[in-house]
Amino acid sequence: MSPKIAAKESVFITVGKTGAPYGVRGWVKVQSFTESAENLLDYEPWYVKSEDSSAWVEASVVEAKTHGKGIIARFEGCDDRDAALLMGGVEIAIRRDQLPEPEQGEYYWVDLEGLEVKTLDDISLGKVDHIEATGANDVLVVKGERERLIPYVMDHVVHEVNIDAGFIRVDWDPDFD
User: Fold this and answer.
1) How far apart are CA 110 and CA 172, in angstroms?
2) Whose C-alpha in 7, 76, 117, 141 is 20 to 30 A from the C-alpha of 151?
């Protein structure tokens, strides 16, 4: 019998996407979605999924490195520019359990997605669909009877995050758009 994997550990997090070929030897440009682009290089293995696939597959990365302000990578079997062209637009992910545990009071976005958002008066506003980064602060995109954009500002708007109980408590008027 194989060991069970907790749902949190089996979640894949998209951390990048392949782009255009780089050179003629199978290298591709990689757009990193990590806080610092080069942080993507700290994770191994990478998993890939093309637009026409629904499954993540472990990728054999022969080499990956920073190049200028970006990242380039060469995958096993991708040995020339034609093969690199076919690699364009492929999503890159890691497993949630590859991430270090966040510090007290810090959360990964993926851990907040799906949590119920409640007002201080315990009125449900819906669930966190995703989070968007803006210049000023991150924004919770909450979907319920309608979509709400709620600033993720601790202690001012967000008063409690309880991942174990599955909710975020906010100071937000349910009638406010």
Assistant:
1) 22
2) 7
Q: Which amino acid is at 125?
A: L
Query: Could you tell me if 77 and 16 lie in one domain?
Result: yes
User: 154 pairs with which residues across the strands?
Assistant: 158
Instruction: Write out pLDDT tens, residues 46-56.
Output: 999 877 777 89
Average pLDDT in the 20-41 region? 93
Which residues constitute the domain of residue 124? 109-170
For residue 116, what is the domain's CATH number? 2.30.30.240
Where does residue 160 fall: left (phi above 0), alpha (psi -120 to 50 degrees), or beta otherwise? Answer: beta
Edge-to-edge order in the sheet of strand 61-67: 57-58, 47-49, 91-95, 12-22, 27-32, 70-75, 61-67
101/35 Cα distance (integer angstroms) = 16
Element (H, E) at 119: strand 116-119
